[in-house]
Structure formats: structure tokens, C-alpha cells
Amino acid sequence: MRLSSSLLLSAAALAVPLSPAPAQEAEVSGSVDPTENSDDPESANDIVVLGVIVYRNRSDAAEPVLTYDSEYFQRFEPLTAGDALKRVPSVTFLSDVLESDGARLRGLDPGYTQILINGEKVPGSNVDRSFFLDRIPAELLDRVEIVRSASARRSGDAMAGTLNIVLRDGYKLDGGYARVGGLRFDDGKLKPSLGAVWGGQVGPGRMLLGGNIQGRYNPKKKSSFRFGDSPENNTDYATDEFDNREDQDDTRNGTDYALNATYGIEGSNTDVEVGGFYVRTDRTESERSREYSDPTALTGPVGGTVGGDLLTDNSQFEDIDQHNYSLTGKAKHRWAAGETTLRTGYSRFVEDVVSTETEIDFDTDEDPPAYESERTLQDIRDREFSLGLEHSISVGGTTKVSFGAFYQDKDRDTDVSSAEAEDDLTEAFRSSYDPFGAGPGELNPQFEEFEAVTGGLNTIEEKRRDVFALVEGDSAAVKWEAGVRLETTRMAIVDLTVDPEFSESRSKSSLLLPSASAKISLTDSDRITVSGARTNRRPRFDYLSPALLEGELGDNDLLGNPDLKPETAWGVDVGYEHKIGRTGVAGVNLFYRKVSDLVEIANTGLEGSEGEGTFILQPQNSGNGKAWGIEFDLSTSLFMLGLPDTGIFGNLSLLDSEIEDFAGTRRFNGQPKYVYNLGFIQDIRSYGAAFGATYRKQGSARDRFVGEEVRTTYGADLELFVEKRFGKWLTVRGVGSNLLNSAKRETFNKFDTIEDQLDRDFDEYELESEKAGPVFQLIARAAF
After folding, report:
1. β-bridge mates for residue 325, sequence order
2. With a threshold of 0.85, does the pTM exceed it?
3. Residue span of the signal peptide, if any (predicted)?
């Protein structure tokens, strides 16, 4: 009932002004040819008032590239680049409900996907080197490129593929526009959404300035049911020995601030462009969890006068401050010997997190019950400087030879320390304690001296020196390229939390990465793309540290391995694409990856810190695997049915893989069997209005680690929008997201030792469910 009333209110707010549009707007064409490219800047009015349905572009590059302009996503008002990418083929997430952070291209771990911004890599806080796409506001996007294979021109860290986020620049916009609106969440909370972009001529060049302030909020409700030791011979997810229930309120609350600027000058022989972006996240994450001994009861503490079902009361609070910025420069010079391009970039990521967890344990014989509290300080500094040089020269006809070099210097400093506090509950707190009132976070404990956690005080220096060469050509029917890249990496790791004898390690690796692609035009509407490449994935930072983490994997210890080599893969992509009329595109693509030197957790055979039956485990290059799948996508109007103002969109990816680990054969962790998106947009030109919907669903995913197995499922995601346009300068749009109240459900199998895991002797079995409720946006865009 609540959902229905909110939908009616949103629709009514936009239905009131549904008056016929001015005559000149009715004359706007109902479709756009995505193959028509222009060097002229786009008018801000055309961005604010679309008046047409925008479809997926056809790329003329030899590589298999899918291109989506920002207008493709705009009508559903995505908040971040991650939200936008939910609508493109083969991108999955294992994020919390309402969040799209770590993109998993082809369903593989985020570390297998290369994330670029304007063609350059940027650092993030994640130990697997991945970059969270919820760091980039969607308002800064010019387009998104999905590069399914690799080229010698780019870094080879792209086993699953590459997502290139291209930001707006001064060459793409003439004029300015503002975006003003707000979001309403399921608990009634309101958050602002503000942005403005301007582009135009300044002196001899063109400039673009953009800014965005985005309120972020995610009120989640979680529930978990845990069960104890399972019956003998249990094989999978089956036990009825109830242990406890946990209810949790988990709220993410914050604001993102973003700036984007470029300035470029095009000369007769020389082009110069400088640019940068800055994103700051000011965010808090608060959790309140209560464990009960009964599956349904909500009574007070064990031993209390109001019942006795509350086992523990836990409070967690994180204060997160993140800064991400990147500065880039590019100069291109055309001269008698060809074309020379110089690129330089500097990126920096800074994260400061203060995390406090306090718990009262009522399931004890102590009186009064003691509470425990731990505070963790996390400080990450990640810096990257890069310099690239490329020269291209024609060698006759349409054949061109390009060669160049790339240098990157990366420094990452990690400082994680913690302190504990233990004390009895004060009489005042015990006498006024309300399990549904102030929680243990209000106790304000006094912490002891902070000390670095094991593996938490280290420095990583990584220097890359790459050289590459490629040949490319273009004929009437075939566009092709073939090249090779040699990547040489030197790494030094210093960890100050381990024995000085083992605290420093150095390594060097060299990889030869050939690649080739060809795009073959069969007709004006039909073409085939064939690509093959060798790619790699560099090891996780936490796996490289020589620290020994006790009890990290069940009761087993984890020892880092500074000698890890990169994983490598040989891959093939074969695709077919058909142009439908002037606007539509339908495609199908087959991919295959064969992975070598896969990093898997191996048993050293040494006894762990918990004694007999436990071991010291270590990541090693001990595995091989393969991944494959088929990807379909469709983007077209229904002009063939006499409905040129109706656009339909859809994609389906069927994914599979195989890998051998300590327990046998499994898929790559976190890879669902399928993901699909369906949607439509109906433009009503005579009224200057439009409406549409998207529906998204991805299959279940399984993860298997030493000590734990997880199965994750998501409900379907439905989004709707309605819009009204006013002349050429204003659009008002209402959007409803997560309208089906999609739930994330996880099943955990937990084990103490490897032997227990193989014998299916559970330590704990847990069912967890998470929901966040629908979100509604009301947004106005105005050109100026």
C-alpha cells in the first residue's frame, strides 16, 4: 500500500503539467542515428531536453567495443557510474542492496576488470586493485565504453575486459545546464541532488567546468538465522539445530562532492589538453545488531525481568573520509614523420576511517555483564604517476605503425591500528538500559594505546616500464590491428609488523602480451569482430604482505607471499553485430578465457596457531581455470511496427567457468550463471513527455574459501520514470528505483578446519537477508 501511494504521488506530480509541447518540439525527429559523429560541440539544450530516444552506439574501432552515451542512461537518473552500468551487458555486482560499487565484468571478481577514467587508471582503497564505480557521479559522464578484448596500446590488466569511463570535456558541450532535485528513501529520509555543467570557448581553447553534490543514504534492514553443528553426513546447507537470531539496522549516510574541469586548444599541427577531476566522500556507516536466543521473540536481556531472550547488543560506527583526484595532460603533434602523442597523469587516493565496535554480552554468568569495545584507525595513501609516449606513422595506403612506451610509479602506504577497552557496565546504564533505545555505542569507553595490527603497517612501491608496438589497417571491408606489449614490473614491499628479517621483499616480473583484432563488414548492416589477446591480473596487496594473520581463515592462519606472480590468461572474443534501420543495433558475442598461474590458497603443511588440525595457509600460483559465455544485446526503436517513438532495450549474458581448488571443481567465486536487463522508453512528442521502465535480474552466485562458503541471490530490480519537457530548456523527471523491494539473501557455511570443510562438519550455518526499500527521485534539469 505504501509503494502504491508513493507511485501515485510521483506520477501525479508530473502529470499535472502535461500540456501539449510547443510546435517546434513536435517537429523533432523521434530517433538518432548513433553512427553519425560530429566534431561540433553538443548544445546544452540537447542534453537537458532529449526529445529523442538514444540508443547504443556502433563503434568503428577494430576492437570489440560497446559504447553508451550518457543520454542512454539519463532518463533513469543514475546517481553513480555504477548505477549506470547496471544496464549494460555482462556487468554484475555483489554489492549491498541499493549500491553498485565493485563492477564484475562477465561476473568475475572486480580485480579482473580494468577500470579506466578517460583512458587512464586511477587508484582506490581496495586491496585487489579494483576501483569502486560509486566514486564517480553519473552527472560527470560523457559516455561509457565496454572493451571486451585487449590492445597493445593499453595495460594488459584486463582479463575480463575494460570499462572506460569518459568524462565530459570542453569539446563536447556548448552552454550550460543545472540539475536540481532530491531523493526520498523508504524511511522518509530526504537527500539533495545538485549539479551544474558549463562548456564553451575561453580564449584560444574550449573549457568545461562541472560540479556535483549528491546526498547518499541507504537504510538497510538485515536479519540472520544461525544454526549450530550439523548432523553427520550432511552435504549441503541442511541443519535444524537453531542457535541464535540476529536483527540488524544498517544505515549508510553521507554526501559526495565532485568537480570536473578540462581545457583544450586545437592548433593546426598541435593539440593540447589538460584536465582533472576530484571526488570527496564524507560518509558514516552505523549498525545496531541484537542477537536473540529465540527465532521470533523481542524480549529483553538474558536474566532480565522482562524475559531473557536478548543474548548480545552490538553497535558499530564508521566515520569515512575519502578523497580521490586525478590530473592529466595530453599533447598531440602532427609533423612530417607522423603523429606523436605525449600523456602524463597524477592520481591520488586518500582514505581515513575511524571504526568503533562495542558489544554487551548478556549470555554470561558475570554480574554485571562486561562489555568489550574496539576502535580501529585506517589510513590509506595511494599515489600513481604515469607518463606515456606514442608515435604513429603511415607506411603506405591505410596501414599505420604505432609504437611507444609507458612508465608508472605507484606508492601505497597503509597504516591500520587498533585499541581495545574492557569494563563493567555502569549502574546508571544498567538501570536505564532499553534494548530498543540507546545502544552500547553510547557508553563512550576509554581505549588503551593504539597499536598497529598485524599486516597493517606497510609500504608498497611498484614501478612499471612498458613498451609496445602495433600495426593497424583499414580497407573497405576489414579494419584490423595486431600488436604486442612488454610489461616489466618491479615491486618492493616493507611491512613493519613482522620480524625485521622478513619485513622487506623485492620482486620483478616481465610479461609479453600479444593481441590482435579484426572487424569484418559483411554488408552495410552486418559485421563480425574477432579478437584474441593475452592479459594478466596482478596479485592482491594483502596477499603480497609477508605478515602472518592468525585465525584469518576459520581456525587456520594466513601467511602472505611476496613472491606471487601475476595470473595470466589467453582469451578469444567472436562477435556478430547487425544494424537495424538508422537507430537499432543487435549483437551477439562469444568469449573464452584460459587462466594460468591462478592464485589459490594452498596448505603449507605447517601447524596453525590453534594447534592440531589447523594449518598455516598461503596464497600460491597453484591453479588453472577457464571462463566462457555468450552475450546478447539489443537496442532499437519499433519503427518496423510503425512505432518510431517506442524504444526497447535488452541484454542477456549466460556465464560459466571452471576452476580447481582444495575441495574440487567450482566456478570462479561470485560469478552468476546469468544476468539480463529488459527495458523500454515511450516518447509522447505531442505532449513533450515520456515514460519508461527497466527490469534487471542476475542469477545466484557461490563463493568457496577456506573456512567459509557463501551462496548469494538477489531479487529482481524494477525502475520506472516519467518526464515532462518544457520547450527547449527544462525537463522535470520522476524516477522510482528498487520498486520490487529487492532482497539480497546469503547462505553461509562456516567451518573450523579444512578437514571439517571436506567432511561437511559445520561449525555454523547462517541464513541472512537484507532489504532497503524503494527510492524515489524528483529531478529538474534546466539549460542556460
Report:
1. 278, 348
2. yes
3. 1-25
